[in-house]
Design brief:
The complex is a heterodimer.
Chain A lengths: L2 E5 L6 H11 L4 E5 L10 E4 L19 H11 L3 E5 L1 H8 L6 E3 L7 E9 L15 E8 L3 E3 L2 H9 L3 E5 L19 E5 L5 E4 L17 H8 L1
Parallel strand pairs in A: 1-2, 1-3, 3-4, 4-11
Antiparallel strand pairs in A: 5-8, 6-7, 6-9, 9-10, 10-11
Chain B lengths: L2 E11 L6 H12 L12 E9 L2 H16 L5 E9 L8
Antiparallel strand pairs in B: 1-2, 1-3
The chains are: A alpha/beta, B alpha+beta.
Chain lengths: 226, 92
């Protein structure tokens, strides 16, 4: 499985991702500069966390028009795998590959923490190594991670099982108190209808190394190799 | 013959979207004693000048810019004002 990590000016989780896919999982991994256009050799495209183009105007708004994104859209439309983490998730909504938008956190804080997240759909390539409703702990670090979509969008996501991760408490209950940023329906991650595109605010790549005793994010990447 | 226009663009969150920054500023104003302040919303103000054949052409382009980049229609509305700038350097 060959991974491609897109590097926008301002991406800062790109090397963390390569550390996981190449360093820990021994998969070929290529860093892809935002001006590149040929990504035909890649199986899984990852849009990493960070502040693409400084996140001026809105998170992900300018990255959306970078030349590599045309190829990413093509890659996604062919049914190939695309993962957007944090800023990458914001870019995927801006470009329209995923519905909705990510806006400023409810309480205005930049949140840097570890939060419990429940796996809502384990039927996707991304989540097949998790059990259904499994509660995992993942790091979050964002100021604008509150998922927003209009009523119809939220209903469609629910109906099509596109909500992949929800913020929950340690017992796996979906409560308002366990929602760190005010996301509608406690949404932490969603997929497109086909399930080949995943966007999530928590950082699985930061919970992948036994050295830091946090490996529940690594299962997501391992699931892709099975 | 094209004309230079000055454009003021206002991008605001759609009314249905919670604006936590607006709520925080509202409570700050209340603390200062301005109890009458209601519904503070914080948006973005963008200024630009552009060359266009006429005002309609300028408006068409601005609509496009707002829809494509300056505003995100999922969460934001926009409006703008356009003023024709006086041409300089031409003899009267």
């Amino acid at each position: 499985m060959k991974f491609g990590v897109i590097v926008f000016p301002g991406s800062n989780c790109d090397r963390d991702l390569a550390t996981v896919t190449e360093g820990l999982l021994h998969q070929p991994t290529r860093m892809i500069w935002h001006q590149d256009t040929d990504i035909s050799d890649i199986d899984v495209i990852v849009l990493p966390g960070g502040f693409s183009y400084g996140d001026y105007l809105r998170c992900g708004a300018i990255a959306r028009f970078s030349s590599v994104m045309r190829s990413v859209i093509e890659h996604a439309n062919q049914g190939k795998l695309v993962l957007g983490i944090c800023n990458g998730f914001q870019v995927l909504t801006e470009v329209g590959l995923l519905p909705g938008a990510l806006i400023r956190n409810r309480d205005l804080h930049f949140i840097c923490d570890r939060v419990p997240v429940r796996v809502e759909n384990n039927q996707l390539p991304w989540t097949k190594k998790y059990t259904s409703q499994q509660v995992i702990t993942l790091p979050v670090a964002h100021g604008e991670g509150r998922y927003y979509g209009d009523e119809d969008t939220i209903k469609e996501l629910e109906d099509n099982h596109q909500i992949v991760f929800r913020y929950c408490n340690l017992l796996g209950e979906i409560t308002e108190d366990s929602n760190p940023n005010g996301s509608l329906s406690n949404i932490a991650g969603i997929s497109n209808k086909q399930g080949n595109i995943l966007g999530m605010m928590p950082h699985p790549e930061r919970a992948s190394d036994p050295l830091i005793r946090a490996t529940e994010g690594r299962i997501l990447f391992e699931g892709l190799l099975v | 013959m094209s004309q230079e226009y000055h454009c003021r663009i206002y991008v605001t969150l759609r009314p249905s979207v919670l604006d936590p920054a607006g709520v925080a500023v509202q409570s700050g104003l209340h603390q200062l004693g301005y109890e009458g302040v209601e519904k503070v919303r914080i948006g973005k103000y963008i200024e630009l000048t552009m060359m266009a054949h006429d005002k309609t052409h300028a408006e068409t382009q601005l609509d496009e810019m707002c829809d494509r980049l300056l505003a995100n229609p999922v969460i934001e509305n926009y409006c703008y004002e356009i003023t024709a700038l006086e041409t300089t350097g031409s003899p009267k």
